[in-house]
Amino acid sequence: MTNHERYDELISIYSLGALDENQLKEIEEHLKGGCGVCEEMLKENEKVLSLIPYSIPSATPFPRVKEKLFKKIRATKQIEEKTFAPTFWERLQPLWLRLGSAVALALLIILFAFNLSLRDKLKEQEIVISSLKEQVTNQSEIMNSLRTQLATKEVNLNNLKEQIARQSTMMEFLQNPEVVTINLAGLKQDSQAYGRVLWDKKYNKALFYGLNLPPIPSGKIYQLWVIADNTPISMGIFDVDERGNNIIQVANIPDPSKVQKFAVTLEPAGGVPQPTGEMYLISAS
């Protein structure tokens, strides 16, 4: 039996005023602690007991007894008046003394049955609440999983849009008869890296794409250069995907008559004004 099951039984006996001194002290200390379940059970028990007086017929005294009673009251020299609000237990005591043992036993059984009913309802509510909490947890996990999937799909969609935009730009350059193709070869031994510059000299714009470049180390970035009049001029920085590929658009290329070569080097993150790192791609003169 748990501590609270013991309190449930003590509350029923407490309602009847039948606890001994130690039990009475124990249950009163428990009630002072603010136990909502026991307070609710005590209220229900008081409600049941308050209806008992109405089930007992009132007794009318004989006239002779009534007359003697009033004479005795009038003969009393002084009646000490005492103003107080009787407690529930004080109101119950005379009633309890008038009840027969059979009635008391029946009432005790009723209170125990009511006590058990309340405990069953409490357990049912606890089970329902536990089930609802579990459902909420499951729904939260499902929602978090869906949010993660949605975020992943959005990233994939954006990547596809970028690829489509790059492919469309490349198709425009390839279909333009004015575009000049410049190949860049890899400088590393056994490297399959290479690149191309699709250069529209009429509008002075170009499209560069590098393929099969090595992965970029931490703190580094690839940088595209155009060498004009023997001077390297930066055309932008770029990273690569997991296959070592990327496509970038290039603008503001120097005068075509002055351009000698295109090259790609590996530089510190953010790029540099002049090449300092190792060269990975270069075009022919």
How would you explain this protein's 3D organization?
By secondary structure, the protein is of the alpha+beta class. It folds into two domains: 136 residues, no CATH class; 106 residues, Immunoglobulin-like. Helices cover 49% and strands 21% of the residues. It has an eight-stranded antiparallel β-sheet with strand order 5-4-7-8-1-2-3-6, with helices on one face. Strand 1 and strand 2 form a beta hairpin. Helix 1 packs parallel to helix 3.
What integer value in Å does the Rg equal? 48 Å
Order of helices and strands: HHHHHHEEEEEEEE
Uncertain segments of ≥5 residues (pLDDT<50)? 77-84
Q: In what range is the share of β-strand residues?
A: 15-25%
Per DSSP, the total helix count is: 6
What about the largest sheet?
Answer: 8 strands, antiparallel
Helix content: 40-55%
Shape: rod-shaped
Please specify the SSE layout and strand pairing.
Layout (H helix, E strand, L loop, with lengths): L2 H13 L5 H12 L3 H15 L12 H13 L12 H11 L2 H75 L3 E8 L7 E7 L4 E7 L8 E9 L2 E8 L7 E6 L7 E10 L10 E5 L2
Antiparallel strand pairs: 1-2, 1-8, 2-3, 3-6, 4-5, 4-7, 7-8
